[in-house]
Amino acid sequence: MSSTIKLLGASVKMLFRDKQALFWALAFPVIFAVIFGMFDFEQPPEVRIGVVAESSTPLSGAVVDGLERVETLTVSERSDLDSARAALEGGDLDIVLRVPEIPLAGGAPAPGGGAPPPPVELEAYYDAANRDVNQLALGTVERIADATNLRIAGASPVVRVQQTPVSAKSVTYFDFLLPGLVGMGVMNFSIIGMAVAITRFREQRILRRILATPLAPVRFLGAQVGARLLLSVVQTAVILGVGVLLLGGTVYGNPLWIFVLAVVANVVFLNIGFAVGGRASNPDAAQGMGNAVALPMMFLSGVFFPTEGLPEVMQDVVAFLPLTPLLEALRTVSVDGESITATGPQLALLGVWAVVSFALASRLFRFDRA
Question: Are 29 and 181 in contact (CB under 8 A)?
Fold first, then answer.
């Protein structure tokens, strides 16, 4: 038992002396966390709107005043419609609103009991490619028009909105991203780090030398795996610490379950690292092959964005990648605040991947390979 602990301790020391391994384990995901943490993804986009009023009337004043009350709208008054539309087409404006020449008090029935005048049309021009961004401004224009109609008709509002603020869980994009960075860090470190280490041991003839000693190869490999499992705990703690304490992220569930999930998934990714290391001829090739395996999962499995944005066929495919169930389980705990018992389907899929990846590693990795 003591010899196993010493071997594990020696493996941990070797791992912490490997600057490349530490970079993939700690610095790489932390850099991502810091970069994304500096962006304010919750800030609504600014909409630039130009108002073209044919004359100064109460209607044009009401429109401009109502638009300027919205913080995300930047309102500018333009002299003519042609120049405003040219600015819209050139990308300098997002919306152009034309206010016709008509007095605000002109909506009553025509003298002599005739039909009322036709409705006044506020003409709104916008970039069709940015319709979703411009919906806030267009909705504001609609509300201004409705309020103007009521004021002209002299009608009193029948329904009012009673607003009552309630404290509720507010999940930000960074809260969604943080468990993704944990999963990304675990995956990259395990696949690339193990693959590079195995090929380096083979290149330095360390594996063959161990075969000539009384030390069982399985004990040496077990110590390597154990050291990386311990480092995955440190890695998860560093990423969560930076994300929560320095960048304002929130973990709504029990953080302990995040560590458990990271360790469980690490077994799968270490097996994949053994498989990659078994095929690569040198550390450089191992790093390239490891990136070829890890990078597609990093971008397709939902580290940075929900997989619902992918085509339906791709959603069905990426659902079975090993990183996908890990991220789903991490977010179930971190974002939804659930217990690990709520991640049963994801743990089952990770268990299947553990068996498959172990079989793959056993077939591709040979301890005595030259």
Answer: yes
Convert the pLDDT of each residue in 31-88 to its tens digit.
877 887 777 666 666 778 888 876 666 666 777 777 777 777 787 888 778 888 888 8
Token reading at 75:
């309102």
φ, ψ of residue 95 to 5 degrees: the values are -140, 140
The helix-helix angle for 323-334 and 255-279 (nearest 10°) equals: 170
Q: Are 160 and 225 in contact (CB under 8 A)?
A: no
3-state secondary structure of 32: helix
Round to whole Å and give the CA distance between 67 and 53. Answer: 14
Residue 32: how many other CB atoms lie within 10 Å = 19
Question: Are 137 and 49 within 8 A, CB to CB?
Answer: yes
Beta strands in 57-109 (DSSP E): 73-78, 95-99
Nearest to 196 by CA among 129, 254, 281: 281
Residue 14 CB coordination number (10 Å): 14
pTM for the structure as a whole: 0.71
98 beta partners = 52, 123
Query: From edge to edge, which strands make up the β-sheet containing 123-126?
Result: 73-78, 47-53, 95-99, 123-126
